[in-house]
UniProtKB/TrEMBL annotation:
Cross-referenced InterPro entries: DUF5708 (IPR043762)
Organism of this sequence: Streptomyces buecherae
Superkingdom assignment: Bacteria
Annotated keywords: Membrane, Transmembrane, Transmembrane helix
Transmembrane residue ranges: 20-37, 49-69
Protein name: Uncharacterized protein
UniProt xrefs under Pfam families: DUF5708
Keyword Transmembrane helix in record: yes
Length: 75
């Protein structure tokens, strides 16, 4: 049950996965924020969705960096 957490703490592939996912999410959010100013949707604007995605991507990047750094310290 805890194998994926254990491998993330040891600095395995989940660290790279978090970094790649965070970067991709932040880039998609940046693209939405930059290029959807004229698109109007009924509930929420795509620019606001882009800002939220940029923050989520940054959080994933920070978490991946934290897990990678803490895994390096344990070795």
């Amino acid at each position: 049950m805890y194998e994926k957490w254990r491998s993330a703490r040891e600095g395995g592939r989940p660290v790279v996965k978090h970094l790649v996912e965070g970067a991709a999410t932040a880039v998609v959010g940046l693209a939405l924020w930059l290029f959807t100013a004229d698109v109007h949707t009924p509930v929420i604007t795509l620019r606001k969705v882009g800002v939220v995605l940029m923050f989520v991507g940054a959080a994933q990047l920070l978490y991946g960096a934290y897990v990678g750094a803490s895994a390096r310290d344990r070795r």
